[in-house]
Design brief:
Elements: H1 17-22, E1 25-35, E2 44-49, H2 51-54, E3 56-61, H3 69-72, E4 76-80, E5 86-88, E6 91-93, E7 96-97, E8 99-101, E9 107-109
Antiparallel strand pairs: 1-2, 1-4, 2-3, 4-7, 5-6, 8-9
Length: 123
């Protein structure tokens, strides 16, 4: 996350609905998770299944404050799937997993309150 993302973050500038639609946010299920000790900040490597059209994508997420790799297996998460891949050390991150900062700034993952099919798009 590049900008301020806590309670002190100001509202972003107005955008159009087309701007919103340009960001492809999908639901996927975590199918693999492991520690990422080489990362500069504590992180977990994830493999997320976004269904048959998008498939399995890898990412690194700084979510170690509230989550362990084992607890993430089988969990549905939301991610931006149409950013270009980003090199993080020797690891290539393909999607951006979404969350919110808690009162101390630690990431709390975003997920639907009921299961939805992998690959479902946020609208």
């Amino acid at each position: 996350m590049h900008a301020a993302h806590g309670l002190d973050a100001p509202a972003a500038p107005l955008i159009t609905f087309d701007d919103f639609l340009a960001v492809d946010i999908r639901i996927g299920t975590v199918v693999a998770a492991e520690p990422f000790p080489e990362a500069r900040k504590p992180a977990i490597k994830l493999v997320i299944d976004f269904g048959p059209l998008i498939g399995h994508k890898k990412t690194s997420a700084q979510i170690t404050e509230h989550y362990t790799p084992d607890a993430l297996l089988g969990r549905q998460v939301a991610a931006v799937v149409n950013f270009p891949p980003r090199q993080i050390g020797k690891f290539m991150s393909e999607v951006l997993t979404l969350g919110f900062a808690d009162s101390r700034g630690a990431v709390v993952l975003f997920q639907p309150d009921r299961p939805v099919p992998n690959g479902s798009r946020l609208f």
